[in-house]
UniProtKB/TrEMBL annotation:
It is an enzyme of class 2 (transferase). InterPro entries: NDK-like_dom (IPR034907), NDK-like_dom_sf (IPR036850), Nucleoside_diP_kinase (IPR001564), Nucleoside_diP_kinase_AS (IPR023005). The gene is NDPK1. It comes from Acorus calamus (Sweet flag). It catalyses: a 2'-deoxyribonucleoside 5'-diphosphate + ATP = a 2'-deoxyribonucleoside 5'-triphosphate + ADP; a ribonucleoside 5'-diphosphate + ATP = a ribonucleoside 5'-triphosphate + ADP. The active site is at H129 (pros-phosphohistidine intermediate). SMART domains: NDK. Belongs to the NDK family. This is Nucleoside diphosphate kinase. Residues 12-154 form the Nucleoside diphosphate kinase-like domain. Its EC number is 2.7.4.6. Keywords: ATP-binding, Cytoplasm, Kinase, Magnesium, Metal-binding, Nucleotide metabolism, Nucleotide-binding, Signal, Transferase.
Length: 158
């Protein structure tokens, strides 16, 4: 029964994955990449970036009214982040499932094999990021690899 409309559901999707400063400082990058590859994702491109206050503010602008925002910007600019574009069928929701809930303390209880359970600390320092929808994935990939105002300008383009 599965004719051409079904083919759309097996199309590959891309998402933006980030190892946050605590993950990079904690030397989790290689382990996380291993989990990514074992879980069937391809890493399409990767780079290390130091966010500044302006970049971090634009990236997390949807949270700019929250009281945790100043702490979040400070955390996200505290060191380099490791950026990857991941690809697979269902990449967006599968990567979210693999990283686990936002609060790493809760992740350790409800999703003990998740990445945040492995290397996150709490609801702020949670080690990794993943786009939460196709719209965010498109926006975040273009933030790091496109020409978004307030986004990242790669060195070779300077
Ligand atoms: N965050 C925080 N305090 C909170 C909730 C979130 O510092 O109470 C930080 C945390 O680093 C989180 C980011 O803000 O990953 C974005 O929050 P969101 O709710 O979008 O969670 P995520 O999509 O990253 O799971």
């Amino acid at each position: 029964l599965c004719r051409s409309p079904c083919d759309a559901s097996v199309e590959k999707e891309r998402t933006l994955a980030m190892i946050k400063p605590d993950g990079v400082f904690g030397n989790y990058t290689d382990k996380i990449k291993e989990v990514i590859l074992e879980s069937g994702f391809s890493i399409i491109t990767e780079m290390v970036v130091q966010l500044d206050e302006g970049n971090a503010t634009v990236f997390y602008v949807e949270h700019s009214h929250r009281d945790f925002f100043p702490g979040l910007v400070k955390y996200m600019t505290s060191g380099p982040v490791y950026i990857m574009v991941l690809e697979k069928v269902n990449a967006i929701s599968d990567w979210r499932a693999l990283i686990g809930p936002t609060d790493a303390r809760k992740a350790r209880i409800s999703h003990p094999s998740s990445i945040r359970a492995m290397c996150g600390l709490d609801s702020e320092m949670n080690c990794v990021h993943g786009s939460d929808s196709p719209q965010s994935a498109a926006r975040e990939i273009s933030f790091f690899f496109g020409e978004m105002p307030g986004g990242i300008v790669r060195h070779e383009e300077l």
